[in-house]
Amino acid sequence: MAFGSEVKLSNIQENWLFELAYDSGTLYLSMSDYSDGTNYYHGAVLNKPTIRDSLDLARSRSSSSNITLDVANFDYKGEPLSEFLFGGSNYFINREVIVKSMVNKGTPEAIGYFRVDDISHTGEKIKLSLVAHRIWDYIDLPVDKTLKNEYVPIVYGNYTKNSNTSIIDSESPTYGSAVFDTSITGNDYFPAPYYTSKGGKEEMTTGIHSIDPNAELAFYDSALDKFIPFTDPSSANVTRTTNHYISKSKRHFARGFGHRPNAHTDHHGKWTDEANAYNTNTGDYAQYSYTFTASASTPNITEANTANDIDYSFTIPSGKLSKGKMVFEIVTFHALTDFNSSADTYELKIYIDYTGTGDSYEEVISENHGDLGFNNHTGANAITKAFTYDDRHPDTIKIGIYRRVVDDVGAGGSNPVVAQTIVRINDIKMYPEMINEEKDGLTGYCAGDGLTESWSGSSGAITEIHEAHRDMLIRFAGMVTTTPTNWSGLDGVKDWGVRYWQTKLQSLKSILEKLQYEGGFIFKFKRGRIAEPEYIYIKDSYSSGDIDYTITKNDISKVGINITDFGNLISKMNVNYDLHPTGGRYLTKKTAFSNTVRTNYNIQSKENIVDVNLDAYISPDVTEYDNSTAVESANPNNDFFAYYHNIIGTPRIIVKGVIVNPKFYDMDTGDLVQFSNMYPEKAFGKAYTDVVFMITLLQRTAGTLKFEAREIGEI
Fold this sequence. Notes:
By secondary structure, this protein is mainly beta. It folds into 6 domains: 118 residues; 109 residues, no CATH class; 172 residues, Sandwich (Jelly Rolls); 80 residues, no CATH class; 84 residues, Elongation Factor Tu (Ef-tu), domain 3; 83 residues, no CATH class. It contains 7 helices and 51 strands. Strands 5, 6, 40, 41, 46, 47, 50 and 51 form an 8-stranded mixed sheet that branches. Strands 20-19-35-17-18-22-21 form a 7-stranded antiparallel sheet, with no helix packed on it. Strands 2-1-10-11-12-7 form a 6-stranded antiparallel sheet. Helix 3 packs antiparallel against helix 5. The longest helix has 13 residues.
């Protein structure tokens, strides 16, 4: 700006100029008459308005005040100014107003940009209400709707699909490539609301852009807490209407997969390694082992299946069972000594109950002496139970071993039979295809990547929070695509990952502020001018080259030195982030605190703790700073907690005052300053040397500029 240092500090004379645009020209007003040689500014403004700009570092927000002009209703172009402003052929409402400052007849410089919001008058005096208009005003997201009047999701971030199970082939179930729920671990999905049934397929809305070829849909099974890919999903999403893309799945939202029991109950303690029947290692097993020795007194020995039964329990998947199979991999071993096939009997039966009641065994595996020969025998049995649409998915299965030995020693024979039986269960597997017949309100989930950035044409997905913020401003609010001030620095240091979706109506302003807070930055237009976007953030470190102004005691008056309010100090956070695709919980929870601060300021164990929920932030992981890992030594941009600890985690110095040197009248919020040769000489017991401050408040009236500067770091 052209505010000069040659002006006497004690003789500041300031005139404000107002340029009111209307549909066919500009109206020029001022506090006192002025001509720039081309335009005449009518000195009809009767009051001295105040422009207040501020930054809230703790919430990562900026704000600008509205102003009111009292204007004399003078004759303008042959009519009262009030008639020129409204009711005729001129349109001032919602048009831009530029406010300029001219100090001691120097070159006028813009200090604020506003819009006309309201006009009133009393006959003699006109009141003009000017608002700090921003491009996000009056905009809600999402913008686009389906033909069913439902909002089309807006999605940002990089997503990864789970493996496609696809184990159901038409009417003949095949399981050669089944994916088990234990291997389905990813949660990188976003909601894709159900749209319609068409052409034997279910359609779900994936968003406003193409994500081919990664648009496969999945079902969230709340019972299993897994995202199960649909059977035969479409890998591409296609347009239904402008800015409405859908992807498809099999009818009734069919999904097939493999899963195993997750618990067992050994009722009699006769089995060993019971959990090996359902772990992921098919090379080990649960085992039943028992030896009978006949005698003359007990030639007939029997053990019922109810004397050794064991239960295996499943979590029942969500939905209704369409079809599927249960498979048992069972191996038997037999060692028979002194067995006479013509006189002795050996029986083995394995009872399997799918109802879990033990009252009706659905499968019986029988082996007798005819199968065995007379020595050792090994038999592998893959027992298959097929389920139909009308069957239920079993929650429990029961397995019991029936054995019987009949020896001729009881009839005078010799050499009693010794019978050893071993039964091993290598694996128990269920392969269901589940469906949902009710569709209303159902949500699918998609793993296609989100929107790409809109300022340079990159085809890669937006993966960082500040990138999503800038794209929203351009895509939905029409912001210029020119590079904002401080963008390169912000982009270089902020690798904070984003996954964010918007499916319900919300103001763009609130979304932008959410992203600013979670991303650790502030966005503003420099002095309100929409052609000058600017990002403000706390850097990891500062050098003398970062400083915009050095202020001395001769440049300011009415100096006040404060510290940040202890009541707003936050020394411990429970940070919840990586939002679950269902929106009901967070996948990561970390607790971080500064033991140094809590000790220094006598903060008790249950005091000064806040819970923070982050809906867009996914990385970097928040370090669980504690006694051994001091956050004080961390860089602010290392993670979310480190950033805000630098701002509100410890008391900071605030310097207030009034600028009396006009060369600082071009100062703006976000500018960095240092103080030198000050009075008081120290900020309490802290020297000003190498301390970096940020301007967080400017309040302007004609002839007066008040400021606040907040400590943010050191050189």
